[in-house]
Design goal:
The complex is a heterodimer of chains A (351) and B (491).
Chain A: H1 10-37, H2 41-63, H3 70-112, H4 119-134, H5 138-165, H6 180-193, H7 200-203, H8 213-238, H9 248-251, H10 267-297, H11 302-314, H12 323-349
Helix pairs in contact in A: 1-5, 1-6, 1-8, 1-10, 2-6, 2-8, 2-12, 3-4, 3-10, 3-11, 3-12, 4-10, 4-11, 5-10, 6-12, 10-11
Chain B: H1 8-18, E1 25-32, E2 38-45, H2 51-64, H3 74-81, E3 88-91, H4 94-102, E4 106-110, E5 116-119, H5 149-157, E6 165-172, E7 178-185, H6 191-202, H7 212-219, E8 231-233, H8 236-244, E9 248-252, E10 258-261, H9 279-309, H10 316-325, H11 333-353, H12 356-376, H13 382-397, H14 401-439, E11 441-442, E12 445-446
Helix pairs in contact in B: 5-8, 9-13, 9-14, 11-12, 11-13
Classes of the chains: A mainly alpha (351), B alpha+beta (491).
């Protein structure tokens, strides 16, 4: 039929990319970046976004127009053995990172909205509802993202604008440790916080309309611009106090009153934004995790992927990690290391 | 199915056997020709035919022509030379004879010929062309479809006097043999959609199709959704516009509604009147309908979420007022809201079933009893009454009854999730509804088009969605139209 081509448009890929990357990046990164560089973190952000654009350029270049899926590309580039190892690691990464995000998200909802309900129950509810989207085909994901990103923007942009009006921009001029080492470390931290971009490995081969690479770079730039504005507003609003406020973006609404607003706690608007963006992120992990599992074992089980993600979110590990810390390992591996590995693999295998 | 015989007695026996115990079947033998030497047999179903057609141009013509003699191809000669009726044909199978009689045609058999003459004499009783009842407009045509498919076809045809308007007649229903007419503009409607519609009709396996609702349920691919993916309309002007836009109309006999496909979410918010009045005013009303639909779905759930879980979000003065007015209410808020919602549904259902003078009385009395008395008795708080009433009124702002029904159902999902999980549940319900809608398709087109994938035709359809831009600005072809260069994947 007319739209049944199992592909999504570039616009839908952009919507998915922006909503997934922005949501994950803006949670911890602004506070961490401020602690390292102060207002200078904005310049580090520009560099990190530039690096991510390069990584995205590399990923899309690897695919070209030749491959229909991640499995197809990885097997042809690296062979069955190494390909399976890469896919297994990627699968593990998706399960663990999304599980930890689910936990952190569940805890945040528990502490800000539903203190009478255990976070495990909230995580289970999110997992089940993400499963509903996770098991749908890529077209449905694309269309959902196309709608949700509009709602997210309607919830987020007015809040940022109102907060921005009353912010003290002198705070941005507070710089810290501007030595090369700190700058590089900050760039690294910001780059890793953009790690959800690794979903592009699965999205890009399903993108139609000539798979325009430049459109994906545009998505990186839009994400970067959004982060820049948000960080600038956060720095201006909280200044040194940003580190004391976990999930600072959620808290920034505490600082202002909406003129003539009917509701008294505008942070509920931000929570709507968060719920939607994490919904897309975690359901994406279910979709792509299941895809990798099928490539590895020949069996597709969305239920298994969903259960594993939920299990990670409720298990107490001896050492507690947050998602940001894990992404410091996984992002360089999958957004920098993997393109290099594929490049070398192709050279050796003369593909 | 068997071929007719050249022996008249044998054919008479076949017909009499088939219509045994059918007292409304009229059959009689006639004699005509030179010296009344030829035998014939006329058969029809009483009251479904136009008697004036049978008597003057058929019977009198045949019986008064004494020069007709026996010979080969007698039936064809009668058609060619004697019967003065425009639509007339010869058939040679008994099933064709039975089917013709059952749809109101008259059959004449003649001795010595294995062909039967089928004369179009359809003249079912009908209630004429009346005013639209479910899609009333202030400005615009008032006529509506009735139960006779041929009249409905004419009502559309008179609005599109173009040879590209194609009308295909099919029958479905093993027992009902219901006539289903498919209307579309050749070269304008997407071939894939037309073919899909035809295929769905041909694949119907049912004994009877008493109404277009039957047809919709049997042919819809997405049965697990409250949202309609085919649009019903009783307005010929709306049908003609839709056909001109590239959509396909299916008119089922015995139903005063045409089915329009594809039907995206957007079309359920469009009213015929939108195009008959100034675009600024109608744009405002269109936007209002969307807002009303959102309110109808979300308001009860949002009220429960805010008052039960997050009262700090509500302005203090209002929160205190709500708390004070529901001080003596013995039920939890969710029960309160559910009671009101169910009461509202009952009132609505009772109002539909009763004659209109009584139903308005029921509405007023029920409203007062449930609203004022329930509040005075302390069973519900006044805020809940207001919330339910606003949600109910908002749901009626949407022009499509089928979509209103969907809103009625979906509202409870939001209500239940909000009552269990507060605002988090509210947002979750909103997401789940969007995911569900994003997964729906109507004849291959995403249900959320043009809000999703609207760029495929340069956002042309978006200009007639949340608002209606002036015609000069929205002349771009609708996506429902066949793209230039034939069918292709548009994403």
């Amino acid at each position: 039929m007319i739209f049944e081509n199992k592909k999504i448009s570039v616009r839908q890929t952009q919507a998915l990319f922006i909503s997934e990357v922005f949501a994950a990046a803006v949670v911890f990164m602004p506070a961490a970046a401020w602690e390292m560089l102060g207002g200078g973190a904005l310049f580090a952000l520009v560099l990190a976004v530039g690096l991510m654009a390069l990584a995205v350029w590399a990923v899309t270049g690897i695919y070209g127009r030749r491959y229909d899926s991640f499995g197809d590309m990885i097997y042809k580039s690296l062979g069955k053995g190494v390909g399976n190892v890469v896919m297994a690691l990627f699968w593990l990464k998706l399960i663990i990172v999304s599980g930890i995000w689910l936990k952190e998200f569940g805890i945040t909802i528990h502490s800000t909205m539903l203190d009478g309900i255990p976070y495990q129950f909230i995580a289970a509810i999110i997992a089940v509802s993400c499963f509903i989207l996770g098991q749908r085909d890529i077209e449905v994901r694309g269309r959902t993202a196309e709608i949700l990103i509009v709602i997210m923007a309607l919830l987020f942009i007015p809040v940022v604008i109102v907060v921005a009006i009353g912010a003290d921009y002198g705070n941005i001029l507070q710089f810290k440790g501007l030595d090369a080492g700190t700058v590089l470390r900050t760039v690294f931290v910001i780059f890793t916080s953009l790690g959800s971009a690794d979903y592009l490995w699965f999205l890009y081969p399903k993108t139609n309309m000539g798979k325009k690479r430049s459109e994906l770079i545009k998505a990186v730039m839009i994400t970067g611009a959004g982060l820049f504005v948000t960080m600038a507003v956060l720095f201006a609003t909280f200044g040194e106090g940003i580190g004391e406020r976990p999930w600072a973006v959620l808290r920034m609404m505490d600082t202002v009153d909406f003129p003539g607003a009917f509701i008294e706690r505008q942070d509920v608007l931000m929570l709507g934004f968060w719920i939607m963006s994490f919904y897309i992120y975690i359901s994406g992990a279910m979709t792509y995790g299941t895809y990798l599992f099928k490539e590895l074992t020949g069996r597709a089980s969305y239920m298994l992927t969903g259960v594993l993600i939920f299990a990670i979110s409720v298990i107490s590990f001896p050492v507690e990690f947050n998602a940001g810390e894990i992404m410091m390992i996984t992002t360089p591996v999958f957004m920098a290391g993997l393109p290099v590995l594929i490049f070398i693999g192709r050279r050796l295998r003369r593909v | 199915m068997a071929r007719l015989s050249t022996r008249l007695d044998e054919n008479i026996k076949t017909i009499k056997t088939a219509f045994k115990d059918c007292d409304d079947a009229v059959m009689r033998e006639i004699r005509f020709g030179k010296d009344n030497g030829l035998r014939g047999y006329i058969a029809f179903i009483d009251n479904v035919i136009a008697r004036s057609v049978i008597e003057d141009p058929v019977l009198i013509s045949i019986m008064s022509r004494t020069e007709i003699g026996a010979g080969p191809r007698l039936a064809q000669r009668l058609i060619d030379e004697v019967i003065a009726v425009g639509e007339c044909k010869a058939v040679d199978e008994d099933k064709a004879v039975f089917d013709a009689m059952l749809i109101g045609d008259t059959v004449i058999l003649v001795d010595g010929d294995d062909k039967a003459i089928v004369i179009s004499t359809k003249g079912w009783p009908n209630r004429g062309v009346n005013k639209a009842e479910t899609e009333v407009v202030v400005q615009g045509p008032k006529d509506a479809f009735n139960e006779v498919v041929s009249i409905n076809t004419v009502l559309v045809r008179r609005r599109i006097r173009d040879t590209r308007l194609k009308v295909k007649r099919l029958t479905a229903g093993r027992a009902s043999n219901t006539t289903i007419t498919v209307m579309y503009m050749e070269g304008v409607a997407r071939k894939q959609v037309v073919e899909d519609v035809m295929a769905r009709i041909k694949s119907l396996k049912t004994d009877i199709i008493p109404d277009s609702g039957y047809f919709v349920e049997l042919t819809e691919k997405s049965n697990l959704t409250p949202f309609p993916t085919m649009q019903l309309t009783e307005r010929p002007d709306k049908t003609a516009s839709a056909i001109n836009e590239g959509r396909v109309a299916v008119i089922v006999d015995n139903t005063p509604f045409a089915i329009l496909v594809p039907a995206t979410l957007n079309v359920f918010f469009q009213s015929a009147e939108d195009y008959y009045d100034r675009w600024e005013i109608m744009s405002f009303l269109r936007l209002l309908r969307y807002v009303a639909a959102v309110i109808a779905v979300c308001l009860p759930g949002l009220y429960v979420a805010l008052t039960v879980y997050h009262p700090s979000v509500i302005p203090t003065a209002l929160a205190l007022k709500i708390a004070a007015t529901r001080g003596n209410v013995p039920f939890p808020t969710i029960v309160e809201v559910l009671l009101m919602e169910i009461a509202f549904e009952l009132l609505r259902e009772a109002g539909v079933r009763l004659p209109s003078p009584v139903s308005s009385t029921i509405g007023i009395v029920g409203g007062i009893v449930i609203g004022q008395s329930a509040v005075e008795a302390g069973l519900v708080g006044p805020a809940v009454v207001i919330v339910s009433a606003i949600a109910g009124i908002c749901s009626f702002v949407v022009p499509s009854p089928a979509f209103v029904s969907a809103i009625r159902i979906v509202k409870y999902l939001v209500l239940v999730l909000s009552s269990v999980l507060g605002l988090f549940g509210f947002w979750l319900a909103v997401i789940l509804i969007i995911v569900h809608l994003a997964g729906l398709k109507t004849f291959g087109i995403p249900y959320l088009f043009p809000f999703c994938s609207g760029y495929v035709n340069g956002w042309g359809d978006l200009k007639d969605s949340l608002i209606r831009l002036p015609f000069v600005m929205s002349r771009k072809n609708s996506f429902f139209r066949e793209p230039e260069g034939g069918n292709k994947n548009d994403i």
